[in-house]
Amino acid sequence: MNLPAWIARRYFFSRKKRSFISWLSILSMLGVGVGTMALVVVLSVFNGMDELNRQIFKTFEADMTVSPKEGKRFTASPELLAKLRQTAGVSIVTSVAQDNALARYGNAQTVVRLKGVDDNYLKRKQLDSALLEGKLKLNERGVNYAVIADGVRNDLSVSVLDILTPLEIMYPQSDQSFNVLNPNAFNREDLTVSGVFFIESKYDNFVLIPVAAARTLLGYGPDDVTSLEIQLKTGTNENKAKDALQEIVGDKLLVQSRDDLNIDLYRTIRIEKLLVAITLSFIILVASINIFFTLSMLVIEKKEDIRILYAMGATTTLVRRIFLTEGAIIALTGAITGLFLGIVICLAQERYGFIGMGTVSSIIDAYPVRLDMSDILMTGGLVVLITFLTSWFPAQRAAAVK
Prior knowledge:
Elements: H1 3-13, H2 20-60, E1 64-68, E2 74-75, H3 78-85, E3 90-105, E4 108-117, H4 120-123, E5 131-134, E6 139-140, E7 143-149, H5 150-156, E8 167-172, E9 186-197, E10 206-210, H6 211-218, E11 224-225, E12 227-232, H7 238-249, E13 253-257, H8 258-261, H9 263-301, H10 303-311, H11 316-352, H12 373-399
Parallel strand pairs: 4-10, 7-9
Antiparallel strand pairs: 1-12, 1-13, 2-11, 3-4, 3-8, 3-12, 5-9, 6-7, 7-10, 8-9
């Protein structure tokens, strides 16, 4: 029989009457439990937000993007495209010509993010789930079409059913002095709107058009692009593919993964998660300080019991272990309860979505959550560490009683 654990359990569970110390122990246990539960839930919400952003980016952005290290554009020769397509793991290579432009529809106009893409773009089927209205087509029977974001549709009051009113895209000519009154100062392209998509507000000003039309508007050559977007085959190792592609494109071009393009956002989420974890850890520490006071008062109350134990041959190590075990019972009971409730709340939110986002324009109805075993283990380890620190000094005091 483990004597320290048995005596500690007697102190905590088997009191004949509830004293102030008993209620303080319960209060300490509840404080640790609530703090632990909050830490698990909040960290899971940050995990869910991280995963949600990755899903959003995956809907619009490619696995790999090749862009120039200097300048806005580069020449993608047929030889370079052929080498990229033959690289192991590469599925689709898309030529992209992208820049800001002015869009006009009827009497309304707005600045848009123009993205010219070749026919391979629609083969990626990324926008299939984001299509709100119309069809995803960019060219049919020699007619150029535009697929616009829902924000552009709202700004310009575009109707997909109206095939008579064109979407006019204008871009300043590089060889002309800029003058809004000069009709020859802009390159112009009229397109029919074929579809409307919605992903997230970050992409709400995009207009997708054929890359040939975009090159004409931007004044690019037949092989000029602002980037090459590369879709990888399922199961391909991204790091190995990235290294192989970088070796092919050379030093003047940069290959970036989807995570590389959005590294600032991911870094912000990680920093916020760390700061929140530190804040909630202090809350758990404050709750655990009650354990310090509880054990200190228990040492005073049990001085006679401690002297009797010493008289019966107990060692200072045994007495110290009794009070360390007492602190562990209080803290771990609260921690285990908090972990259990936190996991249950996260699983229920993930399945039923009880807590909504509270915004009409959100792409999801409820807060995203994702349980991560590392967060649970970190929370449990943190509680154990804090418990040991707050229980050590009262246990030392108890061991010094003679």
